[in-house]
Amino acid sequence: MENETRCVGVIGTGNMGRALVKRLIFSGYQVLIGSRQPDDRRKLLNDDVYLNDVEVTSIDQCIERNQIIFVALHMESYQSILVVNTDKFQGKILVDVSNQTKLQQINLSNAEYLSSIVPHAYVIKAFNTVSTFVLENDVAGGSRRVFIAGDNQFARETVSSIARDMGFEPVNIGALRAARKIELYVLSLFPQWKMPLIIAFTVFTLWLLYIIYYNFIDQKNFGWHQIFICVLNKPMCVSAITLLSLTYIPGSLAAIYQIVSGTKYRRFPVLLDRWLLLRKQLGVITFYVALIHSLMSILMMSPSYYKSWFRSTEIIIPQNLTKDLHFSMKTMMTWKGEAASLFGILTIITMSILAVSTAPSIGDTLNWREWRFVQSKLGFLTLVFAVCHVFIMATPHWITRGFVKIFYFFFWIFRLQV
Ligand code: HEM
Protein backbone atom coordinates (compact mmCIF):
# COMPACT_ATOMS: atom_id res chain seq x y z
CA MET A 1 0.00 0.00 0.00
CA GLU A 2 2.85 2.32 0.92
CA ASN A 3 4.40 1.93 -2.55
CA GLU A 4 1.06 2.14 -4.30
CA THR A 5 0.32 5.56 -2.86
CA ARG A 6 3.86 6.85 -3.64
CA CYS A 7 3.26 5.99 -7.29
CA VAL A 8 0.81 8.19 -9.20
CA GLY A 9 -0.26 8.66 -12.80
CA VAL A 10 -0.70 11.92 -14.67
CA ILE A 11 -2.77 11.95 -17.87
CA GLY A 12 -1.93 14.95 -20.04
CA THR A 13 1.37 16.60 -20.96
CA GLY A 14 0.23 20.21 -21.29
CA ASN A 15 1.56 22.97 -19.01
CA MET A 16 -0.47 21.84 -16.00
CA GLY A 17 0.38 18.16 -16.52
CA ARG A 18 4.11 18.85 -16.74
CA ALA A 19 4.09 21.20 -13.74
CA LEU A 20 2.25 18.57 -11.67
CA VAL A 21 4.71 15.86 -12.69
CA LYS A 22 7.70 18.01 -11.68
CA ARG A 23 6.20 18.89 -8.33
CA LEU A 24 5.24 15.27 -7.62
CA ILE A 25 8.73 14.04 -8.50
CA PHE A 26 10.37 16.64 -6.25
CA SER A 27 8.01 15.55 -3.46
CA GLY A 28 9.27 11.98 -3.69
CA TYR A 29 6.55 10.39 -5.86
CA GLN A 30 7.13 8.01 -8.67
CA VAL A 31 5.17 9.33 -11.65
CA LEU A 32 3.91 7.62 -14.78
CA ILE A 33 2.74 9.93 -17.55
CA GLY A 34 -0.15 8.78 -19.71
CA SER A 35 -0.46 10.16 -23.25
CA ARG A 36 -2.27 9.41 -26.52
CA GLN A 37 1.08 9.67 -28.35
CA PRO A 38 3.59 8.34 -25.79
CA ASP A 39 6.51 8.15 -28.28
CA ASP A 40 6.15 11.76 -29.45
CA ARG A 41 5.74 13.00 -25.89
CA ARG A 42 8.77 11.07 -24.66
CA LYS A 43 10.90 12.88 -27.26
CA LEU A 44 9.44 16.23 -26.21
CA LEU A 45 10.05 15.63 -22.50
CA ASN A 46 13.64 14.59 -23.20
CA ASP A 47 14.50 18.29 -23.61
CA ASP A 48 13.42 19.03 -20.03
CA VAL A 49 16.21 18.23 -17.54
CA TYR A 50 13.72 17.53 -14.78
CA LEU A 51 11.47 15.27 -16.85
CA ASN A 52 13.82 13.40 -19.17
CA ASP A 53 13.84 10.24 -17.05
CA VAL A 54 10.09 10.09 -16.34
CA GLU A 55 8.31 7.10 -17.84
CA VAL A 56 5.75 7.98 -20.53
CA THR A 57 3.21 5.37 -21.48
CA SER A 58 -0.21 4.94 -23.09
CA ILE A 59 -3.29 6.16 -21.26
CA ASP A 60 -4.42 2.54 -20.90
CA GLN A 61 -1.23 1.55 -19.11
CA CYS A 62 -1.23 4.66 -16.95
CA ILE A 63 -4.73 3.84 -15.68
CA GLU A 64 -3.96 0.16 -15.16
CA ARG A 65 -0.75 0.69 -13.22
CA ASN A 66 -1.89 3.47 -10.86
CA GLN A 67 -4.38 3.78 -8.06
CA ILE A 68 -4.30 7.59 -8.07
CA ILE A 69 -4.44 9.41 -11.39
CA PHE A 70 -4.30 13.15 -12.03
CA VAL A 71 -6.42 14.15 -15.04
CA ALA A 72 -4.74 17.20 -16.59
CA LEU A 73 -6.91 17.45 -19.70
CA HIS A 74 -9.44 19.91 -21.06
CA MET A 75 -12.96 18.95 -20.09
CA GLU A 76 -13.88 18.70 -23.80
CA SER A 77 -11.47 15.74 -24.16
CA TYR A 78 -12.81 13.70 -21.21
CA GLN A 79 -15.35 11.87 -23.33
CA SER A 80 -12.99 10.92 -26.18
CA ILE A 81 -9.95 10.07 -24.05
CA LEU A 82 -11.34 8.54 -20.87
CA VAL A 83 -14.67 6.98 -21.70
CA VAL A 84 -13.09 4.15 -23.77
CA ASN A 85 -11.30 3.03 -20.62
CA THR A 86 -14.20 3.45 -18.27
CA ASP A 87 -14.11 -0.13 -16.81
CA LYS A 88 -10.47 0.23 -15.86
CA PHE A 89 -11.30 3.07 -13.45
CA GLN A 90 -13.02 0.74 -10.96
CA GLY A 91 -12.07 1.93 -7.44
CA LYS A 92 -9.39 4.37 -8.66
CA ILE A 93 -8.97 7.92 -7.42
CA LEU A 94 -9.16 10.49 -10.22
CA VAL A 95 -7.97 14.01 -9.45
CA ASP A 96 -9.63 16.57 -11.69
CA VAL A 97 -7.49 19.74 -11.96
CA SER A 98 -9.46 21.54 -14.67
CA ASN A 99 -11.14 24.95 -14.53
CA GLN A 100 -14.07 26.63 -16.21
CA THR A 101 -13.21 28.86 -19.15
CA LYS A 102 -15.92 31.50 -18.56
CA LEU A 103 -17.23 33.19 -15.43
CA GLN A 104 -20.88 32.10 -15.56
CA GLN A 105 -23.46 30.26 -13.49
CA ILE A 106 -22.92 26.50 -13.98
CA ASN A 107 -25.24 23.56 -13.27
CA LEU A 108 -22.55 20.89 -13.52
CA SER A 109 -18.87 21.20 -12.70
CA ASN A 110 -16.18 19.54 -14.82
CA ALA A 111 -15.48 17.20 -11.90
CA GLU A 112 -19.14 16.14 -11.63
CA TYR A 113 -19.19 15.59 -15.40
CA LEU A 114 -16.06 13.42 -15.10
CA SER A 115 -17.69 11.45 -12.31
CA SER A 116 -20.78 10.90 -14.48
CA ILE A 117 -18.76 9.40 -17.36
CA VAL A 118 -16.52 7.23 -15.13
CA PRO A 119 -18.99 6.32 -12.35
CA HIS A 120 -16.81 3.56 -10.83
CA ALA A 121 -14.00 5.97 -9.95
CA TYR A 122 -13.70 8.27 -6.92
CA VAL A 123 -13.41 11.72 -8.47
CA ILE A 124 -11.73 14.45 -6.43
CA LYS A 125 -11.51 18.09 -7.39
CA ALA A 126 -8.18 19.59 -6.37
CA PHE A 127 -5.20 21.74 -7.47
CA ASN A 128 -7.29 23.77 -9.94
CA THR A 129 -6.71 26.94 -7.90
CA VAL A 130 -2.92 26.52 -7.96
CA SER A 131 -1.14 27.98 -10.97
CA THR A 132 1.54 26.10 -12.90
CA PHE A 133 3.95 28.87 -11.86
CA VAL A 134 3.34 28.19 -8.16
CA LEU A 135 3.61 24.44 -8.78
CA GLU A 136 7.01 24.87 -10.40
CA ASN A 137 8.47 27.56 -8.13
CA ASP A 138 8.74 27.05 -4.39
CA VAL A 139 9.35 30.72 -3.72
CA ALA A 140 6.61 32.06 -6.02
CA GLY A 141 3.92 34.26 -4.50
CA GLY A 142 0.27 33.20 -4.71
CA SER A 143 -1.91 31.13 -2.46
CA ARG A 144 -0.58 27.73 -1.36
CA ARG A 145 -4.05 26.53 -0.38
CA VAL A 146 -5.45 23.57 -2.28
CA PHE A 147 -9.23 23.23 -2.09
CA ILE A 148 -10.33 19.61 -2.05
CA ALA A 149 -13.84 18.44 -2.89
CA GLY A 150 -15.09 14.88 -3.34
CA ASP A 151 -17.83 12.51 -2.24
CA ASN A 152 -15.54 9.79 -0.86
CA GLN A 153 -13.83 10.59 2.42
CA PHE A 154 -10.91 8.17 2.00
CA ALA A 155 -10.17 9.56 -1.48
CA ARG A 156 -10.33 13.13 -0.12
CA GLU A 157 -7.90 12.29 2.67
CA THR A 158 -5.52 10.54 0.27
CA VAL A 159 -5.39 13.56 -2.04
CA SER A 160 -5.05 15.91 0.97
CA SER A 161 -2.02 13.95 2.10
CA ILE A 162 -0.46 14.18 -1.39
CA ALA A 163 -1.11 17.95 -1.38
CA ARG A 164 0.62 18.19 2.01
CA ASP A 165 3.60 16.20 0.71
CA MET A 166 3.81 18.63 -2.20
CA GLY A 167 4.13 21.57 0.22
CA PHE A 168 0.55 22.83 -0.05
CA GLU A 169 -2.11 23.42 2.55
CA PRO A 170 -5.17 21.25 1.78
CA VAL A 171 -8.54 22.78 2.59
CA ASN A 172 -11.37 20.27 2.65
CA ILE A 173 -14.43 22.00 1.22
CA GLY A 174 -16.80 19.04 1.14
CA ALA A 175 -18.70 17.12 -1.51
CA LEU A 176 -17.94 17.06 -5.23
CA ARG A 177 -20.81 19.48 -5.78
CA ALA A 178 -18.61 22.18 -4.18
CA ALA A 179 -16.41 21.95 -7.30
CA ARG A 180 -18.97 24.25 -8.98
CA LYS A 181 -17.72 27.02 -6.74
CA ILE A 182 -13.97 26.38 -6.90
CA GLU A 183 -13.88 25.91 -10.65
CA LEU A 184 -15.00 29.54 -10.96
CA TYR A 185 -12.72 30.75 -8.19
CA VAL A 186 -9.68 31.36 -10.40
CA LEU A 187 -11.72 33.42 -12.86
CA SER A 188 -13.04 35.90 -10.36
CA LEU A 189 -11.11 39.09 -9.75
CA PHE A 190 -11.45 40.31 -6.15
CA PRO A 191 -15.23 39.61 -6.10
CA GLN A 192 -15.68 40.86 -2.51
CA TRP A 193 -13.95 44.16 -3.29
CA LYS A 194 -16.06 45.28 -6.24
CA MET A 195 -18.98 46.76 -4.28
CA PRO A 196 -16.89 48.40 -1.49
CA LEU A 197 -14.68 50.01 -4.15
CA ILE A 198 -17.73 51.29 -6.05
CA ILE A 199 -19.15 52.73 -2.80
CA ALA A 200 -15.80 54.36 -1.89
CA PHE A 201 -15.39 55.78 -5.38
CA THR A 202 -18.95 57.18 -5.39
CA VAL A 203 -18.56 58.77 -1.95
CA PHE A 204 -15.21 60.32 -2.93
CA THR A 205 -16.50 61.62 -6.27
CA LEU A 206 -19.58 63.22 -4.70
CA TRP A 207 -17.48 64.96 -2.05
CA LEU A 208 -14.90 66.03 -4.66
CA LEU A 209 -17.57 67.59 -6.89
CA TYR A 210 -19.13 69.37 -3.94
CA ILE A 211 -15.76 70.70 -2.71
CA ILE A 212 -14.74 71.86 -6.18
CA TYR A 213 -18.08 73.61 -6.63
CA TYR A 214 -17.94 75.21 -3.16
CA ASN A 215 -14.30 76.29 -3.22
CA PHE A 216 -13.83 77.23 -6.86
CA ILE A 217 -17.21 78.26 -8.24
CA ASP A 218 -19.21 79.48 -5.26
CA GLN A 219 -16.55 80.90 -2.94
CA LYS A 220 -13.29 81.20 -4.92
CA ASN A 221 -11.31 80.11 -1.84
CA PHE A 222 -8.37 78.46 -3.62
CA GLY A 223 -6.26 78.74 -6.74
CA TRP A 224 -6.16 75.79 -9.18
CA HIS A 225 -2.45 75.30 -8.33
CA GLN A 226 -3.60 74.09 -4.87
CA ILE A 227 -5.75 71.29 -6.26
CA PHE A 228 -3.23 68.45 -5.81
CA ILE A 229 -2.77 68.46 -2.04
CA CYS A 230 -4.58 71.29 -0.32
CA VAL A 231 -7.92 70.86 -2.12
CA LEU A 232 -7.71 67.08 -2.66
CA ASN A 233 -7.11 66.61 1.08
CA LYS A 234 -10.64 67.83 1.80
CA PRO A 235 -12.62 65.17 -0.11
CA MET A 236 -10.13 62.65 1.29
CA CYS A 237 -10.85 63.51 4.92
CA VAL A 238 -14.61 63.78 4.58
CA SER A 239 -14.71 60.56 2.54
CA ALA A 240 -12.68 58.85 5.28
CA ILE A 241 -15.20 59.77 7.97
CA THR A 242 -18.19 58.99 5.69
CA LEU A 243 -16.77 55.54 4.86
CA LEU A 244 -15.91 54.93 8.52
CA SER A 245 -19.55 55.60 9.40
CA LEU A 246 -20.72 53.36 6.56
CA THR A 247 -18.54 50.61 8.06
CA TYR A 248 -20.09 50.86 11.54
CA ILE A 249 -23.67 51.91 10.84
CA PRO A 250 -24.82 48.44 9.64
CA GLY A 251 -23.70 46.88 12.97
CA SER A 252 -25.86 49.39 14.84
CA LEU A 253 -28.78 48.90 12.43
CA ALA A 254 -28.49 45.14 12.98
CA ALA A 255 -28.58 45.68 16.77
CA ILE A 256 -31.66 47.93 16.43
CA TYR A 257 -33.30 45.32 14.16
CA GLN A 258 -32.73 42.58 16.73
CA ILE A 259 -34.09 44.74 19.58
CA VAL A 260 -37.18 45.66 17.55
CA SER A 261 -37.77 42.03 16.44
CA GLY A 262 -37.19 40.79 20.00
CA THR A 263 -35.02 37.90 18.75
CA LYS A 264 -31.49 37.24 17.54
CA TYR A 265 -32.58 34.48 15.19
CA ARG A 266 -34.59 36.39 12.60
CA ARG A 267 -32.87 36.90 9.24
CA PHE A 268 -31.80 40.47 8.47
CA PRO A 269 -33.33 42.16 5.41
CA VAL A 270 -31.30 41.34 2.26
CA LEU A 271 -29.84 44.83 1.90
CA LEU A 272 -28.65 44.94 5.51
CA ASP A 273 -27.29 41.40 5.19
CA ARG A 274 -25.22 42.39 2.14
CA TRP A 275 -24.09 45.62 3.77
CA LEU A 276 -22.87 43.70 6.86
CA LEU A 277 -20.77 41.48 4.57
CA LEU A 278 -19.03 44.52 3.04
CA ARG A 279 -17.72 45.86 6.36
CA LYS A 280 -14.27 44.30 6.28
CA GLN A 281 -13.38 45.61 2.82
CA LEU A 282 -15.00 49.00 3.51
CA GLY A 283 -12.92 49.29 6.70
CA VAL A 284 -9.66 48.54 4.89
CA ILE A 285 -10.45 51.08 2.14
CA THR A 286 -11.34 53.66 4.81
CA PHE A 287 -7.97 53.09 6.46
CA TYR A 288 -6.12 53.87 3.23
CA VAL A 289 -8.21 56.97 2.47
CA ALA A 290 -7.58 58.22 6.03
CA LEU A 291 -3.88 57.43 5.69
CA ILE A 292 -3.65 59.54 2.51
CA HIS A 293 -5.45 62.36 4.34
CA SER A 294 -3.06 62.10 7.31
CA LEU A 295 0.02 62.22 5.07
CA MET A 296 -1.34 65.16 3.06
CA SER A 297 -2.19 67.04 6.27
CA ILE A 298 1.27 66.43 7.75
CA LEU A 299 2.80 67.76 4.52
CA MET A 300 0.84 70.99 4.85
CA MET A 301 1.20 71.38 8.60
CA SER A 302 2.09 75.09 8.69
CA PRO A 303 0.43 78.43 9.57
CA SER A 304 0.24 79.25 5.85
CA TYR A 305 -2.29 76.46 5.38
CA TYR A 306 -3.98 76.16 8.79
CA LYS A 307 -4.15 79.60 10.36
CA SER A 308 -6.36 78.62 13.29
CA TRP A 309 -4.00 75.78 14.28
CA PHE A 310 -1.04 78.14 14.89
CA ARG A 311 -0.55 81.27 17.00
CA SER A 312 -0.27 84.38 14.92
CA THR A 313 2.83 86.48 15.40
CA GLU A 314 2.37 90.22 15.29
CA ILE A 315 5.39 92.33 14.41
CA ILE A 316 5.28 96.07 14.96
CA ILE A 317 7.98 98.02 13.15
CA PRO A 318 8.70 101.47 14.71
CA GLN A 319 8.43 104.35 12.25
CA ASN A 320 11.69 106.10 13.21
CA LEU A 321 13.89 103.09 12.65
CA THR A 322 17.64 103.89 12.50
CA LYS A 323 19.21 100.38 12.75
CA ASP A 324 18.40 96.76 11.75
CA LEU A 325 15.88 94.87 13.87
CA HIS A 326 16.02 91.05 14.25
CA PHE A 327 12.89 89.01 14.95
CA SER A 328 13.03 85.36 15.79
CA MET A 329 9.82 83.68 14.63
CA LYS A 330 8.74 80.57 16.53
CA THR A 331 5.14 79.95 15.70
CA MET A 332 3.69 77.40 18.06
CA MET A 333 0.45 75.52 17.68
CA THR A 334 -2.72 76.65 19.37
CA TRP A 335 -4.59 74.23 21.67
CA LYS A 336 -6.92 73.55 18.76
CA GLY A 337 -4.11 72.52 16.43
CA GLU A 338 -2.50 70.30 19.07
CA ALA A 339 -5.73 68.65 20.19
CA ALA A 340 -6.99 68.08 16.63
CA SER A 341 -3.62 66.58 15.66
CA LEU A 342 -3.65 64.30 18.72
CA PHE A 343 -7.08 62.94 17.88
CA GLY A 344 -6.10 62.56 14.21
CA ILE A 345 -3.08 60.48 15.28
CA LEU A 346 -5.18 58.40 17.71
CA THR A 347 -7.70 57.75 14.92
CA ILE A 348 -5.11 56.58 12.45
CA ILE A 349 -3.41 54.37 15.08
CA THR A 350 -6.62 52.57 16.14
CA MET A 351 -7.65 52.33 12.51
CA SER A 352 -4.36 50.64 11.63
CA ILE A 353 -4.92 48.06 14.41
CA LEU A 354 -8.32 47.34 12.88
CA ALA A 355 -6.87 47.03 9.39
CA VAL A 356 -4.02 44.77 10.52
CA SER A 357 -6.40 42.48 12.44
CA THR A 358 -8.33 41.77 9.22
CA ALA A 359 -5.24 40.07 7.72
CA PRO A 360 -5.83 36.30 8.01
CA SER A 361 -2.39 35.66 9.59
CA ILE A 362 -3.23 38.05 12.48
CA GLY A 363 -6.99 37.38 12.67
CA ASP A 364 -6.35 33.63 13.05
CA THR A 365 -4.43 34.21 16.29
CA LEU A 366 -7.40 35.97 17.96
CA ASN A 367 -10.19 34.17 19.75
CA TRP A 368 -13.81 35.19 19.07
CA ARG A 369 -13.93 37.56 22.08
CA GLU A 370 -10.69 39.28 21.11
CA TRP A 371 -11.85 39.57 17.50
CA ARG A 372 -15.16 41.11 18.58
CA PHE A 373 -13.39 43.46 20.97
CA VAL A 374 -11.08 44.75 18.23
CA GLN A 375 -13.70 45.00 15.49
CA SER A 376 -16.57 46.29 17.57
CA LYS A 377 -15.31 48.28 20.58
CA LEU A 378 -12.04 49.49 19.07
CA GLY A 379 -13.88 50.22 15.84
CA PHE A 380 -16.36 52.43 17.61
CA LEU A 381 -13.58 54.11 19.58
CA THR A 382 -11.97 54.94 16.21
CA LEU A 383 -15.19 56.58 15.12
CA VAL A 384 -15.34 58.56 18.39
CA PHE A 385 -11.69 59.69 17.97
CA ALA A 386 -12.41 60.77 14.39
CA VAL A 387 -15.48 62.73 15.49
CA CYS A 388 -13.42 64.44 18.26
CA HIS A 389 -10.77 65.28 15.65
CA VAL A 390 -13.37 66.98 13.47
CA PHE A 391 -15.30 68.52 16.34
CA ILE A 392 -12.20 70.22 17.78
CA MET A 393 -11.54 71.73 14.36
CA ALA A 394 -15.10 72.93 14.16
CA THR A 395 -15.15 74.73 17.52
CA PRO A 396 -16.53 77.23 18.25
CA HIS A 397 -18.36 77.34 14.92
CA TRP A 398 -20.50 74.21 15.48
CA ILE A 399 -21.43 75.11 19.08
CA THR A 400 -22.75 78.52 18.13
CA ARG A 401 -24.78 76.97 15.32
CA GLY A 402 -26.24 74.23 17.53
CA PHE A 403 -24.80 71.33 15.45
CA VAL A 404 -23.65 69.78 18.74
CA LYS A 405 -27.02 68.09 19.19
CA ILE A 406 -25.96 65.48 16.64
CA PHE A 407 -23.74 63.97 19.39
CA TYR A 408 -26.76 62.85 21.40
CA PHE A 409 -27.36 60.49 18.47
CA PHE A 410 -23.77 59.18 18.61
CA PHE A 411 -23.98 58.48 22.35
CA TRP A 412 -27.21 56.64 21.81
CA ILE A 413 -25.65 54.41 19.11
CA PHE A 414 -22.55 53.87 21.27
CA ARG A 415 -24.70 52.68 24.17
CA LEU A 416 -26.45 50.25 21.82
CA GLN A 417 -23.09 48.81 20.78
CA VAL A 418 -21.81 48.44 24.35
C1 HEM B 1 -2.05 62.00 11.64
C2 HEM B 1 -3.32 62.08 11.57
C3 HEM B 1 -4.14 63.26 11.11
C4 HEM B 1 -3.82 64.58 10.94
C5 HEM B 1 -2.49 65.24 11.20
C6 HEM B 1 -4.99 65.25 10.46
C7 HEM B 1 -5.06 66.59 10.17
C8 HEM B 1 -6.15 67.23 9.64
C9 HEM B 1 -6.19 68.56 9.15
C10 HEM B 1 -4.99 69.47 9.09
C11 HEM B 1 -7.44 68.83 8.73
C12 HEM B 1 -7.96 70.12 8.11
C13 HEM B 1 -8.01 69.88 6.62
C14 HEM B 1 -8.55 71.00 5.81
O1 HEM B 1 -9.35 71.77 6.30
O2 HEM B 1 -8.15 71.08 4.64
C15 HEM B 1 -8.21 67.67 8.95
C16 HEM B 1 -9.54 67.55 8.64
C17 HEM B 1 -10.26 66.41 8.78
N1 HEM B 1 -9.79 65.20 9.20
FE1 HEM B 1 -7.91 64.76 9.78
N2 HEM B 1 -6.00 64.36 10.35
C18 HEM B 1 -5.52 63.13 10.71
C19 HEM B 1 -6.20 61.95 10.69
C20 HEM B 1 -7.53 61.83 10.38
C21 HEM B 1 -8.22 60.58 10.35
C22 HEM B 1 -7.61 59.21 10.63
C23 HEM B 1 -9.49 60.85 10.03
C24 HEM B 1 -10.51 59.76 9.90
C25 HEM B 1 -11.63 59.76 9.57
C26 HEM B 1 -9.62 62.29 9.83
C27 HEM B 1 -10.77 62.95 9.49
C28 HEM B 1 -10.82 64.29 9.18
C29 HEM B 1 -12.02 64.98 8.73
C30 HEM B 1 -13.38 64.36 8.53
C31 HEM B 1 -11.66 66.29 8.48
C32 HEM B 1 -12.58 67.41 7.95
C33 HEM B 1 -12.95 68.37 8.99
C34 HEM B 1 -13.71 69.55 8.40
O3 HEM B 1 -13.64 69.80 7.20
O4 HEM B 1 -14.36 70.21 9.18
N3 HEM B 1 -8.39 62.84 10.05
N4 HEM B 1 -7.42 66.70 9.50
From TrEMBL:
The species is: Didymodactylos carnosus
Q: Which reaction does it catalyse?
A: 2 Fe(2+) + NADP(+) + H(+) = 2 Fe(3+) + NADPH; 2 Cu(+) + NADP(+) + H(+) = 2 Cu(2+) + NADPH
Q: What is this protein called?
A: Uncharacterized protein
GO MF, one example: cupric reductase (NADH) activity
| Predominant subcellular localization, coarse grouping | membrane
Question: In its UniProt record, which GO terms are filed under biological process?
Answer: copper ion import; iron ion transport
Task: Domain (Ferric oxidoreductase): give its ranges.
Answer: 239-385
Where in or outside the cell it occurs: the entry states: Endosome membrane
Looking up Pfam families in the UniProt record yields:
F420_oxidored (PF03807), Ferric_reduct (PF01794)
